[in-house]
Amino acid sequence: MAGRVFFSVTMSLDGFVAPGSPDELMGPQWRELQAWVFPQRFFRENLHFGEGGEEGLDNDILRQTFERTGVSVMGKRMFDAGEQAWPEDAPFHTPVFVVTHEKRDPWERAGGTTFHFVTDGIEAALDRAREAAGDRDVRIAGGGTTILQYVNAGLVDEFSIAVSPMLFGSGIRLFDGVDASRVALEQIRSESSPRVTHLTYAVRPR
Description:
Elements: E1 5-12, E2 16-18, H1 28-33, H2 41-46, H3 57-68, E3 69-75, H4 76-85, E4 95-99, E5 107-108, E6 114-118, H5 122-133, E7 137-142, H6 144-152, E8 158-164, E9 172-173, E10 183-192, E11 197-205
Parallel strand pairs: 1-7, 1-8, 3-4, 3-7, 4-6
Antiparallel strand pairs: 2-9, 5-6, 8-11, 10-11
Domain Bacterial bifunctional deaminase-reductase C-terminal: 5-196
InterPro entries: DHFR-like_dom_sf, RibDG_C, Riboflavin_Biosynth_HTPR
Pfam families: RibD_C
């Protein structure tokens, strides 16, 4: 049985998921947005930051998201930022399909992560991802533009947002340009921790 296609992101209260400039990705504002992730025990274990860390709802959600993901798909902008920032043992531990216009041989990293570069569009990348994922889920990892392309194409089954109590003011809005005439949502989960509010929606055709 094929898995589901989903995305899971952190969003500021005013709707942004990343700074506007590639030079600011992984910078102070982005780190503030993602501050709920860094203390969690699972995050520390997955990136080999040592023992310890927080447990609870936030930690459970990070672990569940990782465990359901059989393959990730991402855009070139996200890959370019991560290529410089991810450790040799990249945190995915699955195949990753990068939607790009640049041809490149697969890039194998330690820990089971191999990046494959797909030059013939988002649907081709998803087809390859589904085949590789088997009965596990496919995560559209980002960035915001790539997520929006999949949403507007009707290819996303479900998504989760961790709403961070901060304001960006500018940057990349998650739903800027969404084709709302084609997308209906059903809320299936809403939980809060002291750090963020977790919202999960099923996506239906309108």
